[in-house]
Design brief:
Length: about 500
């Protein structure tokens, strides 16, 4: 039989074996010989522990605002949101003489507000919440890498004696009629009025923040040429900090600074609005705070391990590479299937956090590099698994299934083998050589028009609210994680 035909048969056998959730029924030494090919299978325990995530790189396009308690773990999470504002190139306003909104002959804004738009949220929409708005002292560069613990107040980027506004809100805004809500173009939002007197950095006083912006435009239209000039000279941005209430977290997708005024054209008066948008074209970032004491208690729970976002807990695995390779030094590892079973939440709360939808598995020492460099899973050292509620040939019920991480096992074994040749202290220098991080991530996919398949184009830390327990831990009540391995080799 030709080599190509042999490989086809081998591949078919591997598919047959891999389709089963475990290899236990095959025994520890499956030896079907087909033209001198021996296929064997084995199963190995994978040790696991919970680890604190601490601060993580924040590249999410969603802002988080609110304060909630996780009913399963009794841990608290708060989200504060920062945004800068975008303007179109060479922005223009009507001729100064046409502005009808005036006071004592000077241009004024009729009113001014910020709207924080959200399409989803967690918690009770009727809960009364409070937010305090702060004006930034300067533009923050988009090129900087921001982490989830970035606090504009501690970093001293809040303008001293600058604009502040305290606002009470509920996500189910009862000031908006049901008729308006049911319009297809309506997007839920939090409204923050900016109607109080405003004093700029040169100690000039204005009726409100909108008046300041309009007068600045007519004095310095060059400041409105682009977003860079706007942020450097007029509107550095705002920080929205949760200041009261518990029970809801808004997932903010965009924001808008609206300035309302009137002007005339051909003897007609028009109501108009200037809008500067907070979108992904400019900096947006969230400050996430977790209750550290409660997180540490969860990490200490060795009956399972946890996956908790945002910036909460991940699971560290120890892959038994030496045990997998022992006795199979000359074999090929065809498949290595790792199933991560989820332990159901049994607290019965209607506000239980959802479980993470996507997990990244990656060598523990590579995590920082992966996210700093905006890398994608390469299916050699890093892989993605999705949460599944159904059983198929490649997934198990209520679990995350990494259907084949054989290349990761082989690469780790090779790294150790070559490292030991180059240095007798290699193991001491690389104590995490077989440690893997299991991290909840947000995955962005696009449809390839040619192949009609979805391709992953972005992987970031998941900063949404999610939490789950998974099988594992050093004193597990639900068994251990299992890695099912299939080997093959040519024999005489």
């Amino acid at each position: 039989m030709k080599i190509k035909s042999i490989l086809v048969v081998l591949f078919t056998l591997c598919i047959f074996v891999a389709c089963d959730d475990t290899t236990d029924t095959l025994g520890t030494s499956l030896s079907d010989r087909i033209n001198n090919i021996t296929v064997t299978a084995d199963t190995f325990d994978v040790a696991s522990v919970s680890r604190l995530s601490n601060a993580v790189i924040n590249r999410s396009n969603v802002g988080y605002l609110g304060y909630v308690k996780d009913p399963e773990t009794n841990s608290y999470i708060s989200g504060d949101f920062l945004t800068q504002f975008h303007t179109i190139e060479n922005y223009t306003l009507p001729d100064m003489a046409s502005i009808m909104s005036r006071k004592d002959g000077k241009i004024v804004a009729d009113s001014c507000e910020i709207r924080l738009y959200y399409r989803s949220f967690y918690g009770d929409s009727l809960e009364t919440m409070k937010v305090k708005t702060y004006e930034l002292s300067k533009r923050l560069p988009e090129s900087t890498t921001y982490f989830s613990d970035f606090d504009p107040i501690k970093e001293d980027v809040i303008r001293e004696n600058g604009l502040t506004a305290s606002t009470t809100y509920s996500l189910a805004d009862m000031h908006v009629s049901s008729t308006d809500r049911n319009v297809s173009t309506y997007i839920d939002h939090i409204t923050i009025p900016l109607t109080s007197q405003y004093v700029d950095k040169n100690n000039n006083q204005y009726d409100n923040f909108g008046t300041y912006v309009m007068r600045t435009y007519y004095e310095h239209p060059e400041y409105f040429k682009n977003s860079y000039q706007l942020a450097n000279n007029v509107i550095p941005g705002f920080y929205f900090k949760h200041s009261g209430g518990i029970g809801s977290m808004a997932y903010i997708t965009s924001s808008a600074l609206n300035i309302y005024f009137r002007y005339t054209d051909n003897d007609s008066t028009y109501n108009s609005v200037i809008t500067f948008a907070g979108t992904e074209e400019v900096l947006q970032t969230s400050h996430i705070t977790n209750s550290q004491k409660e997180l540490e208690a969860l990490v200490a729970d060795n009956t399972c391990t946890y996956l908790k976002t945002p910036a909460g807990i991940y699971t560290e695995l120890t892959l038994p590479v030496d045990e997998i390779i022992y006795g199979h030094e000359n074999d090929t590892i065809n498949t290595a299937k790792l199933v991560i079973p989820r332990i159901n939440n049994d607290n019965g709360s209607s506000f239980s956090l959802p479980c993470p939808q996507h997990l990244l598995i990656i060598p523990a020492d590579s995590v920082e590099t992966f996210f700093e460099n905006n890398m994608l899973p390469d299916n050699k050292y890093s892989f993605i698994a999705d949460y599944s509620t159904t059983k198929s040939e490649t997934t198990s019920v209520n679990s995350y299934t990494f259907s084949n991480i054989s290349s990761l096992v082989s690469n780790l074994a090779k790294a150790k083998r070559e490292g030991m040749k180059s240095s007798s202290n290699w193991l001491a220098e690389h104590p995490n050589w077989n440690k893997l991080a299991l991290i909840p991530v947000a995955v962005t996919q696009v449809l390839d028009a040619t192949t009609q398949t979805y391709e992953i184009v972005k992987v970031n830390h998941d900063l949404s609210l999610s939490s789950t327990r998974i099988v594992g831990g050093t004193n597990s009540n639900n068994g251990k994680l299992k890695l099912s391995v299939i080997y093959s080799k040519f024999t005489n």
